[in-house]
Design brief:
Blueprint (H helix, E strand, L loop, with lengths): L1 H31 L7 E2 L1 H8 L3 H13 L3 E4 L3 E4 L4 H25 L2 H24 L6 H21 L3 H19 L6 H19 L3 H27 L4 H11 L5 H9 L1 H8 L2 H7 L13 H4 L13
Antiparallel strand pairs: 1-3, 2-3
Helix pairs in contact: 1-3, 2-3, 4-6, 4-7, 4-8, 4-9, 5-6, 5-8, 8-9, 9-10
Length: 316
């Protein structure tokens, strides 16, 4: 009896390991973009590629269905879900709740070495932005985009890990994949967009460095809601059938400013932004030939967040 029980447990562990492997493989393909919204997922093909039966693959797909990443379509098969407006909002709202909870703890718990590592993610984002700016490309892509996204993701994972709450981390992992599929890959990134996203991270890192949990929560929520606005506006414009080329600059700028007058103010008067961040002037001079004319603030603001007098206000 005991031997039979042990065998059953070993089989269960083996089946669970295979299902876990299939799940991780599917996640990797989702993260890499090999499986995008609307892509069909074949149990048979995936099982053959992984060298396993269809059962663990089916379990992995069922898990992703429960997480809202995939869906069964009658008489058609399994597909990666296409985002709808509600799914985008829900994914971001869950992330906002979890990350605001986490950043409050991070501001008080993070050790100096962890704070420096968090700042390192900001520095890598900035390095990717500079490489993109110097390339003269209109939209970030290729290696700069890969480095930028890895640093962005690492920054947010560090915040949630600092809360030392395993359940929150599990939920974050699940919803962040949805967030990535529905939000992060929903629009292109021009120089203005990535500069403002970096600024949001820098403000959070600065508040944590000052051990100011209130400021950290405010900065993070402002950053996340701005990102949600970008994803929703990109979704609405795609739904309306508008071309990205003509509307892209206004779209990316508007998601980081509160109204059109402020968008014009940022675009037409970069000197004001330079004064606010002190060191942006040199960046503007080096990127004067790019559009829009606003470049990313320098790394100095991360190490001394007080150099930005608007750090605790809404974006200009």
């Amino acid at each position: 009896m005991r031997q039979n029980t042990a065998k059953c447990r070993r089989r269960a562990r083996s089946a669970g390991d295979l299902a876990g492997l299939a799940y991780r493989q599917l996640q990797e393909r989702l993260w890499s973009g090999a499986l995008g919204p609307g892509a069909k997922v074949s149990e048979t093909r995936l099982a053959k590629e992984l060298g396993m039966s269809r059962t663990p693959v089916r379990e992995a797909i069922a898990r992703l269905e429960r997480e809202g990443v995939m869906q069964q379509v009658a008489s058609s098969g399994t597909f990666v879900r296409r985002p709808d407006r509600l799914a985008i909002v829900e994914a971001y709202e869950v992330r906002i709740a979890i990350e605001c909870f986490a950043v409050q703890k991070a501001a008080l718990r993070m050790k100096p070495a962890e704070v420096r590592a968090l700042r390192g993610h900001c520095d890598r984002m900035l390095a990717a932005i500079r490489e993109f700016r110097d390339s003269g490309a209109r939209v970030m892509g290729g290696e700069p985009l890969a480095l930028y996204q890895a640093a962005d993701l690492g920054f947010h994972f560090m915040l949630v890990e600092a809360a030392a709450n395993r359940r929150a981390l599990d939920i974050f992992r699940d919803v962040n994949l949805l967030n990535y599929i529905f939000g992060c890959r929903s629009h292109e990134r021009d120089l203005h967009h990535v500069a403002w996203v970096w600024l949001g991270h820098a403000r959070v890192a600065g508040a944590i460095r000052r051990r100011d949990p209130g400021a950290a929560v405010r900065a993070l929520e402002r950053h996340m809601r701005s990102s949600m606005g970008a994803a929703l506006q990109a979704y609405d414009e795609r739904l309306a059938g508008r071309g990205r080329a003509g509307d892209h600059g206004a779209m990316t700028a508007s998601t980081h400013c509160r109204d059109s007058s402020k968008i014009r103010d940022v675009a037409e008067r970069p000197r004001r932004l330079a004064r606010a961040t002190r060191t942006v002037g040199q960046t503007l001079a080096r990127s004067a030939t790019l559009s829009p004319p606003v470049g990313p603030p320098s790394a100095g603001m991360i190490s001394d967040p007080r150099s930005n007098p608007q750090g605790n206000r809404s974006n200009p």
